[in-house]
Amino acid sequence: MLNLLEQHPELAASITCNPVVYDFLQNSLTDGLWYWNLLQPAEGWVNAAFWQTLGYAPDQVPADPAAWRACIDPTDLAAAWQRAEACAQDSSQEFDLVLRCTHHEGSSAWLRCRGVVLRGNGSSTPWLMGALFDVTKEKYKEASAQEVATHYSSILSNQSVYIVKTDPQGNYTYVNDFFYERFGCERDIIGTSSLLSIVEEDRPKCLEVVIQCFQAPEVPHQVILRKPYRDGSVKSNHWEFKGILGEGGKLTEILCVGYDVTLLLENLQRAQHLLDVTSQQNIRLQNFAYIISHNIRSHSANLTSLVQLLSEAKGKEQKTMFMQMLATSTEQLADTIVNLNDIVTINNNVSKPKASRALKAEIDKTLDALSVLIRQHHITVEVAVPPALTVTVVPAYLDSILLNLISNAVKYRALDRPAFIRLQAQATPEGVVLTVADNGLGIDTVRYRAKLFGMYKTFHDNEDARGVGLFITKNQVEAMQGTISVDSEVGVGSTFTIQFHENP
Amino acid sequence: MKTPSLAYVVEDDRITAVITEFIVKKDLRYRAVQTFGNGQLAFNQLQEVVRTGGSLPDLILLDLNMPQMDGWEFLDACGALPLAQEEVRVFILTSSIQPTDIEKSTQYKEVKGYFSKPLGKVNVQRMQSLLWDAGE
């Protein structure tokens, strides 16, 4: 087949002779022409289009014929030289590269140069004929695409969000660096089952959300799942699952984006716990307020009535009687206020500092204080408490609790048989358990269980009983987050069990 | 109007018991008043009277917070005794102002009134009208 110039010899003649045709070709096909002496790199020539591409107006074009060299990046120019030499050696090589140039305004411009080496005939100088094309816009686009790619990849591998993809069967097809760091373990997790990596109890929940992804694809579905962290601890993560549809509308993958909510959930639980404690405390305080008002009121009611009766009293005898009762009543009010003060003190100091105490030593101290009574009533005391056993307590409360329980056992001892008190303690996973057992009078727990630790409740015809001992004991135990319970039978004895709470 | 004859005062505080006995005699015109230190003692007596056919009280002034057997337990125990509804009336006389106590007292038919101490003029007048205007 003939080429264009062979078919149209007049065009070939026009190109060589007619400047209009030549100018049209060089100006409309290229953004510049470059003619370079391959024996003397300093010698070369660029056309007006080159300067125009670099932002020079016709009257700004430098006069120096070698000025073009300064516009091309020296490294790129050296590369072009090497490439041109290679092409001169081997005509099958192509000359096609990008030159970074300096625009008239100082910015960078990229010119793609496609060239051909003209060997000339025989010994004449080889020249490079280069056609230049402005690729600056493409270069910028490429750079911005690169930036976007970098940007997204940094989002994908960022330090706080897990990004995971699975196939429709739930096997990992992609995980970001952050996820891998936390849950990757030593092996490669791509291709393994995502479902099995979840805590077993949460798997049905996970499956349910996956089913939702199939039923409603392209919509996010939320779920919180627990997963063992690489250090063995279990983390709660909030996930957003989304089924991604491929061609033909079939679900091809599931995209999962998640973040750690362990701390959030823990705080929530802590807040809930605090709320529970507070509401319990509130109920206790309300009951306490009723108790206080009841006790104070009963005395003030007496005083009011007595004053009324005294003013209406007939005869000296009546007056003296009411006066006597008035005196007793005021004394009782004073006693009550002292008792209430003891109790208010416990309720006020819920956060008293705890300290570690050797239980055995504290028991011995209390028994010492009660030794006169114990000996006087011939009570056998047995203490089975390991000397090394310690409890974390408010020391003053422990003293008071031991004194109350042991002195109760002394006070309500059996009179018709040899009395004993047995103290035992042992460590359990929940904390130390102390039991104080006696073979004394006992209490009808079926009848009194609900009131046993109530205020101003007495269960024996004992003139000294104030009915505050066990109430205070229970409050002190509970203020230290412990529990107290009792087992008792009338005529057999009582066993009080205290569970200490170990947290300081 | 039937002449009030016998009233029980069930009250663990001795001074309150004496004051109440005094007022019941003076203002409610009871000729005889028996006081009991707790519900158990009053119940024992009541049980004995029912058994032997002695004279029943027509009014019981009942405290709530008492050792051994408290006011509620006393009411529960009395429910098992063969007593006619209107025969023995009960007034609760307590220093408790706990709303749950007032609420609970309405569940007992024999309880005709709930009074907060002290047994002052207003309370006495209310007792009088409850006792005397009952259509007898």
What does this structure look like?
The complex is a heterodimer of chains A (about 500) and B (about 140). Chain A is α+β, with helices and mostly antiparallel strands and about 500 residues long. Chain A has 3 domains: about 1-140, Beta-Lactamase, CATH 3.30.450.20; about 155-260, 2-Layer Sandwich (Beta-Lactamase), CATH 3.30.450; about 270-500, 2-Layer Sandwich (Heat Shock Protein 90), CATH 3.30.565.10. In chain A, about 45% of the residues lie in helices and about 25% in strands. Chain A contains 16 helices and 17 strands. Chain A has helices at about 5, 10-15, 20-30, 50-55, 70, 75-90, 135-155, 175-185, 205-215, 260-310, 315-350, 360-370, 370-375, 395-410, 445-450, 470-480; strands at about 30-35, 45, 95-100, 110-120, 125-135, 160-165, 170-175, 220-230, 235-245, 250-260, 355-360, 380-385, 390-395, 420-430, 430-440, 485-490, 495-500. Chain B contains 5 helices and 5 strands. Chain B has helices spanning about 15-25, 40-50, 70-80, 100-105, 120-130; strands at about 5-10, 30-35, 60, 90-95, 110-115. In chain B, strand 3, helix 3 (about 70-80) and strand 4 form a beta-alpha-beta unit. Chain B starts with 5 loop residues before the first strand and ends with a helix. Classes of the chains: A alpha+beta (about 500), B alpha/beta (about 140). The interface of A and B includes residues 298, 304 and 459 of A.
